[in-house]
Records
---
Amino acid sequence: MEFKILADSFDKVEKVSKRLEMTDLLAELFEKSDVDEIARVIYLCQGQLAPPYKDIEIGMGEKYAEEAIAKAAGYTKTEVEKEFKKKGDLGLVAEEFLKKKKQRSLFSAELTVEKVFKNLMRIATVEGSGSQQLKIKLLAELLNSASPVEARYLIRIPLGSLRLGIGDPTIMDAFAINLLPEAKKDKALVKKVEKKLKEKKEEKRAEEFDKKLRLAIREIIESKYNVHSDLGDLAETLKRHDLKGIEKIGIEPGIPIRPTLAERLPTAKKIIEKLGKCAVEAKYDGFRLAIHKKGEKVTIFSRRQENVTEMFPEIVEAVKNLKASDAIFEGEALAFNEETEEYYPFQVTIQRKRKYDIDKMAKEFPLTLFAFDLLYANGQSLMDLPFKERRERLGKIIGKNKTIVLTDTIITNSAKELEEYFNKSVEKGLEGIIAKDLNAKYIAGARKFSWIKLKRSYKGELGDTIDTVIIGFFKGKGKRTKFGLGGLLTAVYDKKSDSFKSIAKIGTGMSEEMLESLFKMLSKIKKEKKPVRVDSELKPDIWVEPKYVIEVNADEITKSPVHTAGKEKGEGFALRFPRMIKLRQDKTPEQATTVKEIEQMFKKQRHVSTGA
Ligand code: AMP
């Protein structure tokens, strides 16, 4: 495919104001892509060369990009620099300079997606002496053959500033549109969907059928995405073999699985009513890690599916002693002081998330991995086994190990016992407990009642904190003028519409250092207008791309006409006295608290008893 087609689609995506228009544009683009290029097209749409778990970052510095632009357009670096200072976006600078290019290049060739991808991949992977010059050359070579619009994106991609706001759900929706004609030939699927139709009138019925069938296709795709989180790979299989082709996709070590999530209930009594006899585990406050072992090769994924193997050498070592050739298991890692038998607070554990001084910190604050679930062992998926069996096998595989241990757990059907265990955990400095359904399968990527959390809370606080996404900020007033930032506009995630809906303005809980660093971080992701997937009637001074998640505490959830989260009859949800606790770097915006969860929390808080 010509790169021009991709660039033109990006240009259109930037201009739309509705997510559905974005979905249609993507469906059109994917339809035009061949089997052997669809994966690349998908990655490029999200400004990447590979899914996050492959850990391939293009990461080119602005200075080098400026040099490449100067080289390709025949201007000096100083001229490019000057324009960048004015415009603040090197993509637009490249576009402008290519419009007034001084020299016609001798070797200009037609740019294809393949060629662009190849050069960008080399830029991402070359190392050693002379590599910077080579990177400039590779980028300049692309710019040489580019039109001004193409140049805009050729610069933004390696700088990591493409930010079209295309989320994974939107990509899956676009796949579903394209698969509709094929799915209509699938008799079993058609029958299943027809059973769900409610419309009586013929014309409307056809419309309803298409909508429901698209949803059914989307569900199939998502169920595979949950166990094989690589959209490029899935797209290629879909192009090659249609929906039938992805049936065979299952979990395999080395490819991340989307984590199961916990529901909430307000009391021990309610938990026992819901689950009956269940496992009750200590809830540790550290990093959730998914460990994949394939023979000698160990890979560790974070909750947002980044490859974090390098950060935790002691865990990699410990995994080598497991009694299984292949395995996928999950646990929560935290700095644990064995001598005093105390858990360090999260602020200590978080220091282990670093790229430098890893060994030094590993010695100072070694981690203990509290393992809690086993999904795969010795060539077999265990996801469909009941939890109690998975846990038993997990214990056997771990055996005696200093760094990896099983989570502390009891099995009970008594609310009193559960509550006592909860109190004991909180006294030890833990967050609370997670109760688990002994018979449940592992549910990837979803929040069903197989896990229920109960967290400590204090008077005047919600039973749980909320993870909100920053969608904009307000400039500081008075004392805060000097920070450039006085407050944040935040949102929760609405899964149904794949959008971020406003819920709170937050101005407390941030230290001066935090205000400064938030301003720096957010200034890099400013948006001229409201991002397509953001739904907010409040207008901040500056909009930002929904990227960062913060943990927030509040006194309660209230109804307010100001916010759009769960808005019905003119009233949405809002947080009363919200305060920021910390940045949640381990969560992607789509992993923030959802509108549905807020709604459930709102309903529950009316009859919160004092229990636990
Ligand atoms: P939350 O982030 O509050 O929704 O709580 C769920 C998180 O608790 C999981 O994603 C894990 O990171 C963490 N966690 C801590 N201890 C456990 C445990 N014993 N079992 C499962 N998850 C745990």
---
Amino acid sequence: MNIAANPVIEADQTIYLKDYQKPSYLVDSIHLDIQVFAEYTQVNSKLVMQRQTAGDLVLLGRDLELKSIHVNSQPLLENQYHLDTEQLIIPNAPDIAVVETSVIIHPESNTQLEGLYQAAGDLFVTQNEPEGFRKITFYPDRPDVLSVFTTRVEADKKFPVLLANGNLIEKGEVGENRHYAIWQDPTKKPAYLFACVIGDLAVLKDHYVTSEGRNVALEIYAEEKDIPKCHIAMEALKHSMRWDEEHYGRPYDLDNYMIVATSAFNMGAMENKGLNIFNTSCVLADEEYTTDAAIMRVQSVIAHEYFHNWTGNRITCRDWFQLCLKEGLTVFRDQSFSEDLQSAAVQRIDDVAVLKAHQFPEDSGPLSHPPRPDHFVEINNFYTATVYEKGAEINRMMATLLGKEKFRKGTDEYFKRHDGQAVTVEDWVEALTAGSGVDLSAFLTWYNQPGTPKLEAKGVYDAAHQTYTLSFKQSLKAHPKYPNLKAVPIPVALALFNAETGEQLVLNSEALFENGVKDGVYLFDQDQATIQFKDVKVQPIVSLLRNFSAPVNLEFNYSDADLAFLLQFETNGFNQWQAAQTLLERILLNNHDAEVYVQAMKDTLPVLIEKDPLLASRLFDVPSEGYLGSRIDADYNPAVIQEKRNALLSTLANELGSFCKETYLALDPDSQKEFSQAMGVRALKNILLAMIARQGDRSAFELAEAQYNHTCNMSERLGALRVLVWNDAPQASAVLNDFYNRFKDEALSIDQWFMVQAAHPKATAETIKALTEHSDYDLGTPNRIRSVSGGLNANPVNTWSFGVQHFIELAKYLDEKNPIVGSRLLQVLSRWYTLAEPQRSQVKVELEALKPLVKSKNVSETLSSMLNV
Ligand code: B3K
Ligand code: ZN
């Protein structure tokens, strides 16, 4: 009997992209037989393998107890193979080898939530991306090995639901108490897309007829009480199916599509072929129990996983370095889908806000890496904002440059060329180039180098010659590991406005053409360049990077008055928001006067609230303390930022005075027909309520209490709860108790209850201790850990004081129990080196002290990168 235990970290386990080699064997088919028992699970597998290149036959396996192994029906003697903690190697294997293994695994004690694990008493699920399948059976577990899977699942009848990918081809009984189901997936797929589910769940059923006439059975599995909360996800699924047909010409290819919800999940969801597994937080949506933001997220994640069926599943990645090929493209696709669901400008604002709050800091610190990394120790550490969000931006830039029609021709070519294959980023860019007829090869530079480019621009108006000259310069901060940084192609969407009237200028199209400005987009792909607009009869104000046409840091010599002008007159909602953000950042970080912003808001809001209340609500977004901290590279003092931000919030509350209360009282979300409009009104009301409270107006508490009590909508209830709790209103503890009692059986709502308290502006170490000692706190449920840790981290003063210990303790505890989540939580501290002394050195000592205590590749790699500044 051999046990492949957890690997011990060795000196250098770095894997390099340049070392990629084809697998020596392919797998034509795999038959899996998974028998679940209370104390163990037995997995028998039969792989039909064929030699492709010279070399040993290599099967990867981790934490597997090998009971038997046969090749071409002959038992393999111990001296005929090598087994270590990570792989089983068979030298001199025949060219056609039928490999049969039997192993024992322990899903019932798998806390890492990777491979097959028991998620709750009555539920077993899998998570195999990127390398979980090797924890189920021995297999060439790499994305470029595609095979046809047949799966037999057997379990006690107390688990009535037995699911795997593909079509159900047989089911039956095994003795009195056990039963089985056999599933076959006709599509070849890599092992990371394998899934099975064994449990006791209820199901919501529907169906969808594809553009090709295929009638697809749709099923969402969840706990019985949660089935009513699955309708929004079901509608979003049908909508996504139609959307992908209409926008990319991609119909669904199987007769069923199943989604299973579980609360024990490390991330949002997983796109297993025809059998998605979702975190409950990304599938359950209901106005009474979950917020508007959560409802939007459910729709976008449902779409994201569905869109993977083509971008990820039918065309997959050759190796894990290419992760952003499927993730960047699929995020771009889900963002575009969501832009159709609500105010497109607000969707863009929210996506860019995430990019700037997470990806920009990541890319300027020790965890910076190219969207396509060229080396890693633990691939799970590379499911990052850079791979996902910056990856999406690269696709958006190419799409912007090509325009709708050519982009579609490019994607059509990609699907035509590579359906059924495991490919690279180069294959994608080449197909787009061939299909569109536009050479996009320069965009590969974006994939291959790290860092956020700085885009410096200057504008000069010459009234005598009626010209407006714009000059551009791009640069990247030097990076020790990437000495040859190159200029990247930057699509700059722009418009000129008449400074007197606020109207957009219609420009001389011939001159635009000469300058290379097409459809309002100038492609800046040199280190420096200048363009000139002619016949500009009035002083213009330029709006640059409209809709955030490239993921760069823009520096332009705007006056505050110019920004106020853009806040009011830009017709691109994203750039209105960007102007507000720049003004607010200047007030907070460069001590500019708040008056210009306040006046611009007064001038803009009355009309905008009528037209687009959601966009109006976003114009109030005062950059968070965390975001502001990420803009500071040295001598960062979180308390100073907090003080300035609080002062600004008070100024705004006072300056906007009676406007807030009058508007609050006049707004009624129930009078809106569209969900997105009602959501906007709710968002606005919550902001205004917080402002009224900040003015010190005691009636705010009564308004909040009334809002809390007279609604069935979670966004309204939570908005009111926050105002009462965060301002220590006399009603605070009563509403907290009420909320708890109302929702005690609703895990997602209770997550919010934890978060509100952890994010209290005056939360102390004791507050957090009390929450983590609460009987509903559970270190086995990532959602619950994130609710408290996320709440704590909303206040960087806390993060960088007692929070340091909190996150280090979590990383230590999770290092063995759940290293994926442990590594992720530790990253909260990655900007420690920007702190002012003595905090900087204190945190460094604590991080150094953690080093010898952690063993997982996940946490160790993150920690050593973090310390390598
Ligand atoms: N592809 C999965 C992510 C898997 C993460 C593994 N640590 C979800 C998604 O991006 O759709
Ligand atoms: Zn994805």
